[in-house]
Amino acid sequence: MLQNPHDDNGSWWSRPGGPREVLQVALPLIVTTAFWSLQWFIDRVFLMHYSTDAIAAALPAGMLQWTLVCFPMGVASYVTTFVAQYYGAQRPQRIGLAVAQGIRFGWVMTPLLLLAIPFAPMLTEWSAATEKVHQLQVEYFQYLTLGAGAVVLSNAMSSFYTGRGKTRIVMLVNVGGTLVNLILDYLLIFGEFGFPEMGIKGAAIATTVANWFNVVAFYLLMHRKEDRETYALTSGNRFDRTLMWRLLRFGAPSALPMLIEAGAITILVMAVGSIGVIEAAATSMAFNINAVAFVPVYGLGIAVSALVGQHLGADRDDLAARATRTSLAFAAIYTAVFGLLYVAAGDWFLLPFRTEENLEEFNQVRDVAVILLRFVAAYCLFDAVQVIFVGALRGAGDTRFVLYVTTLVSGGSVAIGALGQTFWGWRLYGWWWVMTGWIFSLAIIYTLRFSQGKWRSMRVIEPEVTADEDLLENEVVAGQMDA
């Protein structure tokens, strides 16, 4: 279980909430998300080498599919907070029940997400500069959506490990899925080793297969005898109306900001895509290069949620605050380095996209992308700040505040950008100025909210169990051990 929360001895490095504890939980998640960013980066490089139209289509269609899946995924992944707080409160028998609710939610959402496939032509109609790009967007969205349910399920399953700080298992599963994706990317995009040449459709199929690979891997791992008995993964595998309601009550406000933010970014990306192919391709490149810095920080944000949940479950809000500050220091140093590199060596990041077959088009895209990387350099540190503090607030259960802020700031930013494009002639750089101001605002607001400290008294798990419930849990454990 947790390190003794009352043992606050040790050096700056080894004390609870210090660098060692943070890195033990965060490093596997950082590696996991680094592989995600590597996957997306190589995927876009392959598509750029395949055709400029393909890479121009990938970002808007991919963002639209992400918007579709991020709300149910956010609810399912909020199981992490329940697992973390039960773990910190030393109530392991409730963990299996919490995970079961997340998995059931994922299976309900899987067929519902597939209903979006026939609407792909309508949903992407206004986001492409040419009809060819539009057709590629439709293909990419439809085949990606076949794996949408797997994303929800794998997030619920991984919460069983992330909430307890066992993030190395999550890392290994996701690294395996990423390798499956990259291998299939190469085979299916270009038609190598006897596989059909499928272009952007092949990239989407590769991602879908990798998503379902993760589900199968987590399923097999969660059937290990020790985990089934200790955390009631078998006896707790049932529908619990009260706990499902608590998951929806706290998970929905946590997931809605993801939906709103993803929807707002999708509108921004589609608006840029309607300006022209060069602008869309340059934005796609800049976003994917930014993923090198942003996505690992997102992994650190997941770790912050787990650590804050664990320490609050043990009634140690001081250690939760310390873990957050430690994580913020790591994130700030990491993104500051990348910000400097984006300014000083932006061309270097674009070299993998270079293709001799379309050199003239590449040079046009590169000239725009170099400028966009300067925007990324300006906001990436602020992006890290808001990711860390949002992770901490979600780990405590302060999800309604995150929802309100995201709705106001994201909605306002998109409205300003749309007005600017419609009435004042803003084009590509106008939208990027909007995004930069958007991220600055979020960072400032979440910093103030965390400093205010209301999150310290919040919990998402039910109050301490009664003596009868405690006795029942102990009898369940004893019966399993006797069996």
Key words describing this protein structure:
mainly alpha, 483 residues, 0% strand
Question: How does this structure look, described?
Answer:
The structure is a single chain. The chain has helices spanning 19-50, 52-77, 79-88, 93-114, 120-123, 131-145, 148-162, 167-190, 200-221, 225-230, 241-275, 277-313, 317-344, 346-350, 359-396, 399-423, 428-452, 467-482. The chain has 483 residues and is mainly alpha-helical. The chain is globular and about 60 Å long. The model is unreliable at 1-6 and 465-483 (pLDDT under 50).
* Content-based structural category: mainly alpha
Q: What value does the Rg take, in angstroms?
A: 22 Å
Return residue spans where pLDDT drops below 50 for at least 5 consecutive residues.
1-6, 465-483
Total DSSP E strands: 0
- How many domains, in number, for the residues? 1
Q: What is the residue-mean pLDDT, rounded to a whole number?
A: 85
Q: H/E series, N to C?
A: HHHHHHHHHHHHHHHHHH
Percent strand equals under 5%
What overall geometry do the principal axes of the alpha carbons give?
A: globular
Helix content: over 70%
So how many helices? Answer: 18
Query: How far is the N terminus from the C terminus?
Result: 24 Å
Query: Major beta sheet, specifics?
Result: none
